[in-house]
Design a protein that fits this description.
By secondary structure, this protein is mostly beta strands. Helix content is 12%, strand content 52%. Strands 1, 2, 3, 4, 5, 6, 7 and 8 form an 8-stranded antiparallel sheet that branches.
C-alpha cells in the first residue's frame, strides 16, 4: 500500500485489492491498482510488477463511491459511460481491501482525487 500526503490527510495512490470480475461467472481476482493523478485515471494490473495493464477507469466516469456488503472490507463505485445509442451505460465495480481501515482509505482517497471529498 502506497500513500501520499494531501491537505485533507493521506491518500492511497497504489495497492493490491480483490476486484470482482468475469462476464458469465463472476470471481474475485487479485489486482494491483495505481492512481494516476495526472491523467485522472485508476489503472489496474495483473500484479505489482505492472507488466500487464488489465484496465483503467477515468475519474470523470466514476460516481457513487461507497462501502458495500458483498464481502468483508468491500467497497465500490459506478462507472458511467455514454453508449453509442445515446443512453448512459452504467456498471458497478466491486473491490475488497485487506482491512476495514484500508477500504475506508480507498473510498476517501478516490472521492478526494475525484473532487468529491465532501460527499457521503
Amino acid at each position: 500500500l502506497s500513500m501520499s500526503s494531501a491537505s485533507s490527510g493521506r491518500l492511497i495512490t497504489s495497492g493490491t485489492l480483490l476486484k470482482e470480475g468475469g462476464k458469465l461467472v463472476t470471481k474475485w481476482q487479485r489486482r494491483f491498482f495505481v492512481v494516476d493523478q495526472e491523467a485522472r485515471v485508476l489503472r489496474y494490473f495483473s500484479d505489482e510488477r505492472k507488466s500487464t495493464e488489465k484496465g483503467s477507469i477515468a475519474f470523470d466516469q466514476m460516481s457513487e463511491f461507497a462501502r458495500e456488503t458483498k464481502r468483508d472490507f468491500c467497497f465500490g463505485f459506478t462507472k458511467r459511460k455514454p453508449h453509442k445509442s445515446g443512453k448512459m451505460k452504467t456498471k458497478r465495480y466491486y473491490f475488497a481491501a485487506a482491512s476495514d481501515e484500508e477500504a475506508e482509505q480507498w473510498v476517501a482517497s478516490l472521492k478526494f482525487l475525484d473532487g468529491r471529498a465532501g460527499e457521503s
